Amino acid sequence: MSNSLNLKIDSEKAQEIPMVDLAFMVLKAANTPYYYRDLMNEVAKIRGMSEEEISDVIAQLYTEINIDGRFACVGTNLWGLKRWYPLEKSEDAVSSGKRPRIINDEDDDLDDDFVEEEEDGYNSEEDDDYDAADEDSDEDLFADDDEEEDVEAVEDDSLLDEEDMDDEEEDPADDESEEEDYSDKD
Q: CA 182 to CA 59: how far, in whole Å?
C-alpha cells in the first residue's frame, strides 16, 4: 500500500519487537488505515520473513490486533489506530443501526382462550372424590401391623466377645504344626 514507508529499525531489533507492536508502528508512521494483508506484508518485510513464515503467523497477528485496544477495524478488513477515530463517531455508527421495537400482541388472545378452557374443564367435586380415594389407599399402605413384626431373640452366648475374637486369631507357627498333623494322618 505504501512503498514509501520506511521505519528505521535494524533487523536484529525487529526480531525482538512483537509483531503487534510492529503493526502499530507501521500504522502510526503511515497515518492511514491498511488492509490486514497489506499490514501483515509490511510487518513481514520489516522482520525479513519468508512466505512460509508469514502463513505460519498470519492468524496469530490478526488475533493480537483484534485483542489489542490500540487498533480499530474501520471497514471490511481495514485496520487503523483507534485514536484516529473520535469516540462519538464510532457510537453514532452503532446507534444508527438500532431498529424500533415491535411488540407482537397477536398471540396474547390465544393465551386467554387456553385459560378459559382450563377453567371449564375443572370440576371440584371430581377432585374431592380423588382425594378421598387417595387417602384410603394411604391407610392401607401404612398399617400398624407392619410395626409389630416378630423379632427372634438372640442369645447372649452366640455373640462373640473380644476375648473370643483374640482366641480365633492364631499364631502362624500353630498353623504349620496343625498342617503337619493332618499330613501324618494320610
A: 82
The SS3 assignment for 94 reads helix
Identify the weakest region by mean pLDDT among 16-20, 51-55, 161-165: 161-165
Q: Is residue 116 part of a domain?
A: no
Would you say residue 44 lies in a domain? yes
CA gap 31, 97 in Å, rounded: 28
Give this prediction's pTM.
Answer: 0.45
What is the C-alpha separation between 44 and 22, in angstroms, rounded? 9
Average pLDDT, integer, range 50-78: 90
Q: Which domain holds residue 82?
A: 12-95
Per-residue pLDDT at 125: 60
Number of domains forming the structure of the chain: 1
Residue 85 lies in a domain: yes
CA 72 to chain CA centroid, nearest Å = 29
Q: Which position has the grid cell 494322618?
A: 185
Query: Where would I find the H helices in 48-121?
Result: 51-67, 87-95, 108-120
Helices (H) and strands (E) in the chain — how many of each?
A: 9, 3
